[in-house]
């Protein structure tokens, strides 16, 4: 049910609520479909063999009340993990921020009523921000 924002008239106003969750994780940008040389060329320093870390900030926007269970998708699965080694989804998918947004969307949408989840926005760094709306 869409959130009603103090609507006194017959029609309900649709509002959006965003909850913010931060987590820390490490990763390495490396595609199984590229050679080591091609990976180094494409991903540069982000392909360094021992990886690097981020303090990710995730903004989850829904069209209504947020149930507490949804933050487990982020914190339990991702916080203080190595995305490439601890999260099976990234065994064959490069752990870019856009793929991380899809991962969070796929796992969060299962926990919510239909059409409630509106947007996942992830700040990987101050300059690297991704928005995904399930398209
Ligand atoms: N398509 C994508 N390309 C890259 C992503 C991504 O998520 N999607 N991510 C990275 C690395 O994870 C990298 O750590 C991103 O940040 P980085 O380049 O280190 O830092 P900034 O962009 O904030 O700052 P610069 O000073 O411009 O490096 C790379 N590619
Ligand atoms: Zn990175």
From TrEMBL:
Cofactors (names): Zn(2+)
SUPFAM superfamilies linked: Tetrahydrobiopterin biosynthesis enzymes-like (SSF55620)
GO MF term list: 6-pyruvoyltetrahydropterin synthase activity; metal ion binding
Domain of life per record: Eukaryota
Record-linked InterPro entries: 6-PTP_synth/QueD, 6-PTP_synth/QueD_sf, PTPS_Cys_AS, PTPS_His_AS
Example of a GO cellular component annotation carried by this entry: mitochondrion
Pfam families reported in the protein's UniProt record: PTPS
CDD domains: PTPS (cd00470)
UniProt keywords, alphabetically: Lyase, Metal-binding, Tetrahydrobiopterin biosynthesis, Zinc
Function: Involved in the biosynthesis of tetrahydrobiopterin, an essential cofactor of aromatic amino acid hydroxylases. Catalyzes the transformation of 7,8-dihydroneopterin triphosphate into 6-pyruvoyl tetrahydropterin.
PANTHER family: 6-PYRUVOYL TETRAHYDROBIOPTERIN SYNTHASE, PYRUVOYL TETRAHYDROBIOPTERIN SYNTHASE
Family named by the database record: Belongs to the PTPS family.
Protein name, UniProt field: 6-pyruvoyl tetrahydrobiopterin synthase
Organism: Mola mola
Organism phylogeny: Eukaryota, Metazoa, Chordata, Craniata, Vertebrata
């Amino acid at each position: 049910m869409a959130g009603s924002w103090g609507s006194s008239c017959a029609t309900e106003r649709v509002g959006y609520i965003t909850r913010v969750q931060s987590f820390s994780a490490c990763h390495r940008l490396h595609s199984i479909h590229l050679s080591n040389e091609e990976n180094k060329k494409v991903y540069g320093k982000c392909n360094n063999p021992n990886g690097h870390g981020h303090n990710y900030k995730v903004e989850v926007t829904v069209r209504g009340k947020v149930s507490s269970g949804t933050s487990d998708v982020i914190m339990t699965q991702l916080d203080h993990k190595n995305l490439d080694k601890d999260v099976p989804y990234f065994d064959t998918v490069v752990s870019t921020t856009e793929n991380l947004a899809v991962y969070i969307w796929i796992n969060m949408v299962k926990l919510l009523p239909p059409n409630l989840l509106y947007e996942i926005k992830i700040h990987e760094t101050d300059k690297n921000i991704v928005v995904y709306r399930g398209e």
